[in-house]
Amino acid sequence: MSELRFEHVSLQYGSLRAVDDVSLTVPSGQVVGLVGESGSGKSSLAATAVGLVPPTSGQVLVDGADIQRMRPRERGLQMVFQDPYSSLDPRMSIGESIAEAMPRGTGKRAEVARLLELVNLDPSRAGSLPARLSGGQRQRVALARALAGRPKVIIADEITSALDVSVQGAVLNLVRDLQRQLGLSMLFISHNLAVVRYVSDRIAVMKDGKLVEEGTAEQVLESPQHSYTRELLAAAPSRHTSLWEDAS
Known about the structure:
CATH superfamily of the domain at 1-76 and 188-248: P-loop containing nucleotide triphosphate hydrolases
Strand content: 25-35%
Shape: globular
Strand order of the largest sheet: 6-7-8-3-9-10
Number of strands: 10
Number of helices: 10
CATH topology of the domain at 1-76 and 188-248: Rossmann fold
């Protein structure tokens, strides 16, 4: 478990300011849900965390250490993307993809089997290619691959948005169970507040590159302070929650 912290992070693409002076903390062992509409800057903020793009200004810290001064494997950050098919090499078996992310010296065959079981997939599927799996199964593989790197923090970027509602439920239940079982620190990004409130200890709201509200899930959901948060709440279909709770 580790703390991820953004300190006054800004990200500029030419004349576009995608992230504007954002300070946000993902406490050790907690899930922070980051919510906002498309173009709000949430995925751009995530990109600075995993080193895909350096911030124009500000710092991203893991346990107080600036990630820009660390090698990628030293950062302890793993990202799970929206489209699991594009994040997996179609020519590699899922077992090979998971093993590729493991540290050197790991007993890879046994560890692949353990990780597949952890995400509720039969280890006998290790030899399967991604094309032979459903979208939900591929997203489980992407989660297993992220865990293979033994991360301190996981960033999940819109990982259920491409899935059917019933499949979303199974994946969200898995994410919640894994987080509790492993004590993971996680930044969970979504445009859907119904998804975010299901898994999050804290919720942060972004709009036009700025952080407009942040607090415990209870505070943000029951007493939203910003009009944009109230708009997101009004648009969030609460019926999804019961569907997810029944999913397996």
